[in-house]
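WARN no homologs supplied; continuing
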Amino acid sequence: MPTAARLTAAMCLAVLAGILSKMIIPLMPENTQFGYFIPINVALGLLAGWTVMGPRASRGITAGINNGLTGVFILMLWGLATHSVREMLKKALLRRYDGMGEALIASISIAAEYFMVIATLPIAITVIVGGALSGVITNLVNRRYPSDMAALF
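OK structure emitted
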């Protein structure tokens, strides 16, 4: 069911995903073809905010911070998984793997490589501060526009 908290969480994580994408691009090798990198990450931010953060919006600053950090952790996890599988599929279409098991293991090693590239202090600070702010904003919107009608009376 659409709520103001879900919409707010989705928008907050989408904006955060766009900011993080712009910060990650210079960290990658020069010959990297990014293609749909930013739109995929923004879509993942919308999805993570809508499905993970929005329904968990509750009252209180601590709950909001925890919710935001959970949401941004899920966003990063889904982003790493999506882009590593996408890279593995590109290599699989060039017949670089002998079997499906080798390709799946390669996607895990690609995700680990991507994680090592993006594991920098500016990215970590942006993830933590952005996640905490997203969670607090989502909770404030949930308090102002509650999803259940019983809270209105």
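The helical segments are 4-24, 37-53, 61-93, 100-118, 121-144.
OK
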